[in-house]
Amino acid sequence: xxxxxxxxxxxxxxxxxxxxxxxxxxxxxxxxxxxxxxxxxxxxxxxxxxxxxxxxxxxxxxxxxxxxxxxxxxxxxxxxxxxxxxxxxxxxxxxxxxxxxxxxxxxxxxxxxxxxxxxxxxxxxxxxxxxxxxxxxxxxxxxxxxxxxxxxxxxxxxxxxxxxxxxxxxxxxxxxxxxxxxxxxxxxxxxxxxxxxxxxxxxxxxxxxxxxxxxxxxxxxxxxxxxxxxxxxxxxxxxxxxxxxxxxxxxxxxxxxxxxxxxxxxxxxxxxxxxxxxxxxxxxxx
Length: 286
Prior knowledge:
Blueprint: H1 10-19, E1 28-29, H2 30-37, H3 41-53, E2 57-60, E3 63-66, H4 68-98, E4 101-108, E5 111-118, E6 133-135, H5 140-146, H6 151-158, H7 173-185, E7 190-193, E8 200-208, E9 213-222, H8 228-246, H9 248-261, H10 272-279
Antiparallel strand pairs: 1-3, 2-3, 4-5, 4-9, 5-6, 7-8, 8-9
């Protein structure tokens, strides 16, 4: 029986090194990783140096453990799965009520990434897919999330450079800032009128608690057939329900604050009403 061929590509070798961290031991020595991966010691040492430099692994003393980058990616995957599970019934209901393609998206640096998609029963095929990326500034979902992102962070993300997808894509940071101000004034509703793809329009709303938006839900379709004004309330209501499900404590806090902000009627001191009636003529009003 022939032995399996050794891994050829660097990605395969890196995967063998990372697979050595199977959860049974939090920290491994160089020799542990050599034995578990089956790779030459010199190869493992070289790969470990690169993985530590890139924060996939952490090196302390004489052993190695998973680094922050691996933990961040794992946490992101868990968070995204939880997000999809929490919003799935609401997205399905939105899809049934409107018959339009529904997307759930999150922000990742310059792009929005599609986490979930429910395609329309008819109409044009959209250039979107689960896991697909689109420049955030050119999409309704991206603008819905960016509107609730710290402006300094938005500047740092784009560094003044906006990639054009169509002639209608926002061309400058100033134009983007003005658009995000309009999104906030509309309570989070954002629009894409052929800014990402010719012939495609979209309306989106953010999923958020009291702080930044974590995602956006949107309706996307053929621009000539999309009545964005009619569809906006459906998107806004779905986003509100999803936000309430994801951040119940934030919703309770906002409601409590809203009740506190409502002016309370002034109370009459004892006998004041009787004196007022006497002063204007007794039973004149009766």
